[in-house]
Write a structure and sequence with these properties.
This protein is of the alpha/beta class. The protein contains 9 helices and 5 strands; from the N terminus they run H-H-H-H-E-H-E-H-E-H-E-H-E-H. The structure holds cobalamin (B12).
Length: 210
């Protein structure tokens, strides 16, 4: 097994100690930072993603794998310019006002990041104003909103209306998700898309962020 394959395997197994060690060894041996990312760290998440989709891996395992990938990323990132990292686009993600649930949001963020998006996670209980400010500051291709409570779903419409009123919708797609949501609800509030899980969220962003 090549060192890149070994690194991918540590990511797949969620072994962040191993991922850190092999990443360091690859850096010391002079391997290209982008090759470490693409052929090792992201390659590991590429094994995870279809298994998660097929129900062969579960949320805690995916989170461990994503954390192992992030551990390696932290070591490699200082060696490259941000501009050199190929990115499919910028996605801002947050849980809407009044809602503190973040497990699903974090999972979506990790899967998007491992799928090549630059993800800016603005946290939980995010006010309408904070979403608008973040959209102005980072100029993202996509904004993703998460809600797990039926009582906080309404904040999604308020946020979409505010983004529209601020004239920010031209080059911006808005996607929503969370257990109580549906495609129908997304349509009703004027979102550009809905995804039921993290893998579907990645596919949706790939379609929308062009
Ligand atoms: C864990 C949990 C908590 C934890 C949250 C910890 C954390 N850091 O997130 C704690 C204990 C803090 C909590 C608190 C509360 N909770 Co709670 N909680 C849950 C629980 C059990 C699991 C949620 C979860 O993490 N699921 C796992 C993740 C991976 O799935 P997910 O969130 O659905 O995310 C996936 C998709 O939805 C999608 N997705 C998610 N976000 C996004 C975003 C985008 C853009 C996209 C595209 C996709 C996407 O992709 C994700 C990954 O596949 C649910 C029950 C349930 N089965 O949903 C109740 C539940 C959501 N909670 C509930 C309630 C009532 C509460 C409380 C009000 C309880 C209380 N009385 O205090 C508080 C509210 C606090 C607040 N203000 O937010 C109710 C909501 C009922 C309702 N109809 O609104 C539920 C449904 C439980 C129930 N059956 O009563 N909760």
């Amino acid at each position: 097994m090549s060192d890149f394959n070994k690194l991918a395997d540590t990511v797949f197994r969620g072994d962040f100690g191993g991922a850190a060690q092999i990443t360091k060894e690859l850096i010391d041996s002079g391997a290209e930072p982008l090759a470490i990312i693409n052929q090792g760290l992201i390659a590991g998440m590429d094994i995870v993603a279809p298994k998660f989709k097929a129900g062969e891996m579960f949320v805690p395992e995916v989170m461990m794998a994503a954390r192992a990938m992030a551990t390696g990323m932290e070591l490699v990132k200082p060696l490259i310019n941000d501009v050199d990292i190929p990115s499919k686009g910028t996605v801002i993600i947050g849980t809407v006002a009044g809602d503190l649930h973040d497990i699903g949001k974090n999972l979506v963020a990790m899967i998007l990041e491992s799928g090549g998006f630059k993800v800016i996670d603005i946290g939980v209980d995010v006010s309408v104003e904070k979403f608008v400010e973040a959209a102005k500051q980072y100029n993202p291709q996509v904004i993703g909103m998460s809600a797990l409570l039926t009582t906080t779903m309404v904040a999604m419409k308020d946020t979409i209306d505010a983004l529209t009123e601020a004239g920010l919708r031209k080059n911006l797609k808005i996607i929503v998700g969370g257990a109580p949501l549906s495609q129908e609800f997304a349509g009703q509030i004027g979102a550009d898309g809905y995804a039921a899980d993290a893998m579907a969220a990645k596919e949706l962003c790939e379609k929308l962020a062009v």
